[in-house]
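On clarity, I found the account of how folds are encoded harder to follow than it need be. What matters is that the chain and its backbone geometry are given together, residue for residue. I therefore recommend that a typical entry be quoted early in the introduction. An entry of this sort, consisting of the sequence and the corresponding backbone structure tokens, reads as follows:
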Amino acid sequence: MSASAFLAVALLHLMAAISPGPSVLMAARIGVTEGFRSGVAVAVGIGIGGVFWACAALFGLALLFEYAPMLLTALKIIGGVFLLYMAYTLWKSADEPLARTIDGTAPRSLTSAFMLGLVTQVSNPKPAILFAAIFIGTVPATAGWGTYAALLCVVFFNEVMWNTLVSRIFSMQKTRATYLNLKGWIDRAFGGLLGLLGIKIAIT
């Protein structure tokens, strides 16, 4: 695989990672409510989820979706229902005060934050199709395991880097102060966006 083709894959995926979606929204939400450390854990979970779907594309799950579309439909519905559940939870708790510990952070373990990022990313099967489209056009059939490993590293790096940046921006003191003042409205906005994304994933 040529260096230019590898760079093309890296840039295409970075653009995909930057585009708004459930994972970016979750990174922003955790950053603003629970701070940067939890946001980084979420970002790492999102990165592992991205690697999962990249592996699926590289090793044939996208082809399976093509020949067994009901499987893709089932996964999309499950993922959509999960995001709708998250949206409902946010909307329902919008007017509740934010739970805080003595040091000012929300009471969620880093493991829990990591799992939230992972499940949010894995609940959306569309990246498998996206990765397949990118890889088919750029990764030669003769590519070896070293190339595959390097591509997966790029996927992980892009996802973690971008979502960590999003979390950092939303974890800044001014951003968090604004959130606390407008918690009800912002939580409903987050919940509404997650709900719309859940419906979009389920029906498209």
